[in-house]
Amino acid sequence: MKYAYDLHMHSCLSPCGDGQMTPNNLVGLAKLAGLDVIALTDHNTCKNTPAAVAVGDHFGILVLPGMELNTAEEIHVLCLFEALENAMAFDAYVETRLVKVKNDVEVFGNQTVMDEDDNAVAEYPWLLTMATDIRIEEVPALVAGYGGVAVPAHVDRDAYSILSVLGALPPELDFKTIEVTRIGGRDKLAALAPELSARYGILENSDAHYMESIPEPLIHMELQNLTRKDVLNAIRFGQITVQS
């Protein structure tokens, strides 16, 4: 069956995200928009995913726990998990490898951890848009060790992408699926590196930081069942078929 998805979304925990992107607003608007499955992928943290998963269970929309990891080379990688406990264990590990710079709220914005009722429970102190000291070649096996799957993010972009930093996607890196920007990304990839479209499965995501960026359900993936396991397996084996 076809399921509408967006697997790259940010909450109010990302300093570049809108403070209105609370777990309830984010998940509820995604449900109202007609999406079937989403992933919360804040920068270098999974700390709002327990709330988002709980809200998803309430609203009847599948929420994958995730993270947008920033590597030592400043390459963004989506890290998606089947089990919430594995995502939180990965979160704890990444925290030990984050370059620690205090967040300046006046400059970068708040980094708010929330519960499932949208109550603020903490302000994360370290700037989450900093790099980690995790190198890109570590990422596929590292994420797999936590039961997850890693996807190079927005490879069509001019910054924070594997193509903009390395100039290529080395085939020895064990990625099976890549991500492009939902609007125009596939065309840009065709101009930048047309061979990648044949080599990898391709996700098209919004990278939504604001409520108005939550997309309409125009892009679908084919799955036998709508489960976290089925979504991750499609990504893990490069079997993403993008359909409008």
Q: Count all strands and give the number.
A: 10
Mean pLDDT: 96
Instruction: Tell me, briefly, the overall form.
Output: globular
What is the helix fraction of residues, given as a range? 25-40%
Q: How does the helix and strand content classify structurally?
A: alpha/beta
Kindly describe this structure.
- With 244 residues, the chain is an alpha/beta fold.
- The protein contains 9 helices and 10 strands.
- The strands form 3 sheets. Strands 7-4-3-2-1-10 form a 6-stranded mixed beta sheet, with helices on both faces. A two-stranded antiparallel sheet has the order 5-6.
- A hairpin with a 5-residue loop joins strand 3 (62-70) and strand 4.
- The longest helix is centred in the middle third of the chain and has 13 residues, at 84-96.
Write a brief caption for the model.
By secondary structure, the protein is an alpha/beta fold. 30% of the residues lie in helices and 21% in strands. Strand 3 (62-70) and strand 4 (76-81) form a beta hairpin.
Write the layout of secondary structure elements.
Layout lengths: L1 E8 L13 H11 L3 E4 L8 H11 L2 E9 L5 E6 L2 H13 L8 H4 L3 E3 L5 E4 L15 H7 L2 E5 L9 H5 L10 E5 L3 H8 L2 H5 L1 E5 L14 E3 L5 H9 L8
Parallel strand pairs: 1-2, 2-3, 8-9
Antiparallel strand pairs: 1-10, 3-4, 4-7, 5-6
Helix pairs in contact: 1-2
